[in-house]
Design brief:
The chain has 258 residues and is α/β, with parallel strands linked by helices. The chain is built from ten helices and eight strands. Helix content is 50%, strand content 12%. The radius of gyration is 23 Å and the shape is globular.
Length: 258
């Protein structure tokens, strides 16, 4: 009788233990905020590259990122991606984030109207998705930035409002490499510009270019990566951005600047 009673108590204990384990596991999953949680002391940097892909510089940049075990975000031009789908796929296959930077990069036509801009953005998105076989984030970068002066102020305001209404986020930058200020910019100027702009930045979005002429950007990239590593930054792509990262970038007027 006593042996049977002891066995019953043990079985009851086991059942209670399994129930409670299951309960806490389910509730942990339900309450798991995952990407919503960010380390308050963490410094984050997003390396971004515009105007590619190019056959000469994009593969070199990819190799440097891989060698340093960091990842970047490539805002690609649609017609170039259409001509080089294997490069777009290679970027994605190696863990890079690939997003639109317009199909045409023709400021005059691109910013002529809201409808014209949306058609261009959709066309670029389709090219990327065809090359990668994946749906992409509704995130892009305006050629010239969201406050460019190519279009009329009213037209640009309408374009920004429309893309926001359609659920897009547009990304500017708070750290410029200055590699687009001339046809050829020295390595030292690129590196020093990034160092200067990044001082004190908790979240940094670095503007660089991987277009055909930007060979000095390639040369500067290892020094830029080394600087961020030495200063304790975590490297992320935009498909790894947490809600906290996004909120910080919105407050800093890097994302959805009005």
């Amino acid at each position: 009788m006593r042996k049977s009673l002891n066995l019953g108590i043990i079985l009851l204990f086991i059942m209670c233990f399994l129930y409670l384990s299951s309960f806490y596991k389910v509730n942990a999953l339900e309450n798991h905020s995952g990407d919503n949680v960010a380390n308050a002391d963490e410094k984050v940097v997003f390396l971004t590259f515009d105007d590619g892909p190019s056959r000469n510089n994009t593969p070199k940049i990819l190799n440097i990122l891989k060698e340093n075990n960091v990842y970047g975000t490539f805002f690609v031009v649609g017609y170039k991606a259409e001509s080089n789908p294997e490069l777009v796929k290679r970027l994605r296959d190696n863990g890079m984030c690939v997003l639109p930077h317009s199909y045409s990069h023709n400021y005059k036509s691109l910013y002529s109207s809201v409808d014209g801009f949306m058609k261009d953005l959709e066309r670029c998105t389709n090219v990327i998705e065809d090359a990668t076989g994946e749906r992409i984030l509704k995130v892009f970068r305006f050629p010239g930035g969201s406050d460019n002066r190519v279009s009329s102020l009213d037209t640009m305001k309408d374009i920004r409002a429309t893309v926001r209404d359609k659920g897009y986020k547009y990304v500017d930058w708070n750290i410029s490499s200055e590699d687009a200020t001339a046809y050829r910019v020295s390595v030292s100027k690129i590196v020093n510009s990034v160092k200067k702009d990044s001082r004190g930045a908790k979240v940094g979005v670095v503007l660089m270019h991987d277009a055909e002429a930007k060979d000095t950007t390639v040369e500067a990239l290892p020094y830029i990566i080394k600087n961020f590593k030495e200063n304790g930054y975590v490297f992320k792509t935009f498909d790894e951005a947490t809600e906290s990262d996004i909120k910080t970038m919105e407050l800093c007027r890097i994302i959805n600047r009005e």
